[in-house]
From TrEMBL, chain A:
<dbReference type="InterPro" id="IPR013750">
    <property type="entry name" value="GHMP_kinase_C_dom"/>
</dbReference>
<dbReference type="InterPro" id="IPR006203">
    <property type="entry name" value="GHMP_knse_ATP-bd_CS"/>
</dbReference>
<keyword id="KW-0753">Steroid metabolism</keyword>
<keyword id="KW-0963">Cytoplasm</keyword>
<keyword id="KW-0808">Transferase</keyword>
<feature type="domain" description="GHMP kinase N-terminal">
    <location>
        <begin position="147"/>
        <end position="232"/>
    </location>
</feature>
<keyword id="KW-0756">Sterol biosynthesis</keyword>
<dbReference type="InterPro" id="IPR006204">
    <property type="entry name" value="GHMP_kinase_N_dom"/>
</dbReference>
<keyword id="KW-0444">Lipid biosynthesis</keyword>
From TrEMBL, chain B:
<dbReference type="GO" id="GO:0016126">
    <property type="term" value="P:sterol biosynthetic process"/>
</dbReference>
<keyword id="KW-0756">Sterol biosynthesis</keyword>
<protein>
    <recommendedName>
        <fullName>Mevalonate kinase</fullName>
        <ecNumber>2.7.1.36</ecNumber>
    </recommendedName>
</protein>
<keyword id="KW-0444">Lipid biosynthesis</keyword>
<keyword id="KW-0443">Lipid metabolism</keyword>
<dbReference type="InterPro" id="IPR013750">
    <property type="entry name" value="GHMP_kinase_C_dom"/>
</dbReference>
<dbReference type="InterPro" id="IPR020568">
    <property type="entry name" value="Ribosomal_Su5_D2-typ_SF"/>
</dbReference>
<keyword id="KW-0460">Magnesium</keyword>
<dbReference type="GO" id="GO:0004496">
    <property type="term" value="F:mevalonate kinase activity"/>
</dbReference>
Length: 405, 405
């Protein structure tokens, strides 16, 4: 355990950065709720959390500039600040820093956090903000205690689009907090530009804390979002069991955000209702999705050495995506905007599939390795002309990375 | 057995008319090839065959105006004629009239018929024509022998669109021929306007002959097209077994002919190839389709007495159609034109599903009983603006009807 943070009087300010990726579901959404396998993968769009801990003066809480915990959300242009004394007053008895032992946020703790949020000016329209701030305060206080510090968050990920932005926030923040707290070792594997991947045990600790944060934001998350964000690559998920997949050959995809909001709970409920009206047919549908996810899991682990092998692998991937899309339509979760994306990409012989809840949200399009850049440009231009937002991503890449300045 | 035709010298000309409906597949196409159940239904678009047998003069074959067998295809504007002597010369030994005993067309008979077609001027572009003419000659000579007569055929049905036009041709022609030959009784069930439905044994005889005609046109037909055309209503079809369904409450549908031609054999082969690449997933898909067809079979037999019951029945039908469409997309047989129809009808909250082979062809749209005419007009206009052809039909109605003048 790194003793740095423990001897604050002898050190200067501590700066830590962490970045964690978003995720897409490659196959299995919705059916996964009914016991089928699903496959999620990291995408190279990141949420960045940085933490600056100023050294505490000789007397904690006193001295020039009594400490505060600040949060700067760069993308929204919003900042929040809680004096440490206020934090201690509200949370002191409820939360003590214990970074090595992740535990859920209790109802009392949550109530205490809610009181702290009342101080702040939270714009009416941003309901998600309260949940995110609660998760932040919980993680901060649970890992670092009431020490003064400033956190800055920015992200490449659109929010509420099903790309795992809240998990990326929880993972990057947990990673930064645990690194700052000295609860995880850094320095051993510094890569290019100083970013490094933590070792397995450390990642598991981060993941557990991030999951607790996710629970505050989402209620009953599956855990797959934060796991993919922490560990990267691809993960197969079935009935609560996660399996890390050794994916070879980076897969390029286009993610199209239709910007059509949807009610995930309602979509999930709709599928369940259809299943109760047609139990046999839907059981077969879920079974087919399971087969597709299992096949996809095998295919991504194949190493493809030459162009022919790569193309063959991508053809199989594309066919599985197309089949999954048909099954999602059978479940009733498609949407006219999704169909517009499908129709547009089809004109360029590209295969697409909704990802996540459906009813709007994001659509994945496989970009074959051998496809021309001009094709990608044209299809992107056409999609953007509908008001959609496109991201070109690499799928199955890195998970959490930290940087200690 | 009606002795009319047997004593030609004592009677005037015999005029017979028959009309047989086309069909749609409500659910189960493609999957039916792999053992799943499918449901087909008659539609109120008819092929009309009329037959005029002139009385043979005292000496057959001689006298003013040597006799011939003529065929007038009204919709194509083509007429064909074979002198009876020519027929007798080519087929005499091969075919003798035996209307009560349907038998397949043998290779020798087919060769003889092919020689007869060489006389005629068959436009290059009309490949289907040869098959249809062969079926006509086979049925005519097998049922009526080489008696002079004139057949006129016209139809409401587009050809090659998957709506059973060739079966409707074979059924109406067989019905007319058998009635003219006196092989089936008429007169007992005369309905309004003189059209009547033959009794069950007679219909079976017609159906067997029509099936032999279909075999000449299609090679290995399933038999469902001619059965639906003969018997009407709806028929469930599974692994070669046909079950007549007592469908209640006429269902209104819009049929949109995208006019996109497609290669049915290629589409069927494509599904089989996908099944060989993904046996598990596709087996589940076929299983789901089977369940959908079985459910639909039950639903159509329910009697709905009031508006609420009718709406409830139609909602179930619509949901099954939507689910089947998703599964067909999973099989890979949809097409951009089909998707355009789906997208258009979706704007009016109407549910649609491709019918038949896919890859173009026709699309079904359920028109709820309580929907307004304005909606139907608007959606029809919008579909026609794409160059599609729309037919408003009633599904599950009458089969073959004959009329003896």
């Amino acid at each position: 355990m790194d003793p740095v943070a423990g001897t604050a009087e002898h050190r200067g300010p501590l700066e830590v950065r962490a970045r964690a990726p978003g995720k897409i579901i490659l196959a299995g959404e919705h059916a996964v709720v009914h016991g089928s396998a699903a496959v999620a993968a990291a995408i190279d769009l990141y949420t960045n959390s940085s933490l600056l801990l100023r050294p505490t003066g000789p007397g904690e809480g006193g001295g020039a500039g009594s400490g505060a915990v600040e949060l700067d959300l760069r993308d929204s242009g919003l900042t929040f600040s809680w004096p440490c004394s206020r934090l201690r007053g509200a949370l002191g008895e409820e939360i003590s820093a214990n970074p090595g032992a992740p535990a859920p946020c209790s109802p009392d703790q949550l109530a205490a956090i809610a009181r702290l949020l009342q101080d702040q000016e939270i714009p009416e329209a941003k309901i998600w903000l309260s949940a995110g701030l609660s998760a932040f305060l919980f993680l901060y206080a649970s890992i670092l205690g009431c020490r003064p510090g400033k956190a800055v968050v920015s992200s490449d990920l659109p929010m509420g689009a099903g790309l795992g932005s809240s998990a990326a926030f929880c993972v990057s923040m947990s990673g930064a907090l645990l690194t700052a707290a000295g609860a995880v070792s850094v320095g051993a594997r510094r890569g290019a530009e100083g970013w490094e991947v933590l070792e397995k045990g450390a990642l598991e600790l981060v993941n557990q804390w991030a999951f607790q944060g996710e629970k505050i934001i989402h209620g009953k998350p599956s855990g797959i979002d934060n796991s993919v964000s922490t560990f990267g690559k691809m993960i197969k998920f079935k009935k609560g069991e996660l399996t890390n997949l050794e994916s070879w050959n980076p897969v390029k995809m286009l993610i199209t955000d239709t910007r059509v909001g949807r009610n995930t709970k309602a979509l999930v409920a709709g599928v369940s209702e259809r299943a109760s009206r047609h139990p046999d047919a839907m059981a077969s549908v879920f079974h087919a999705v399971n087969s597709i996810s299992e096949e996809l899991s095998s295919i991504v682990e194949l190493a493809a050495e030459d162009e022919i092998a790569i193309t063959s692998k991508e053809d199989k991937l594309a066919e599985l995506m197309e089949m999954n899309q048909g099954l999602l339509q059978c479940m009733g979760v498609s949407h006219s905007s999704i169909e517009t994306v499908l129709r547009t990409t089809l004109k360029y012989s590209l295969v697409s599939k909704l990802t996540g809840a459906g009813g709007g949200g994001c659509v994945l399009t496989l970009i074959p390795t051998l496809s021309a850049n001009t094709v990608l440009e044209k299809v992107t231009t056409e999609l953007e002309s509908h008001g959609y937002r496109c991201f070109k991503v690499e799928v199955g890449g890195r998970g959490l990375q930290v940087f200690r300045g």
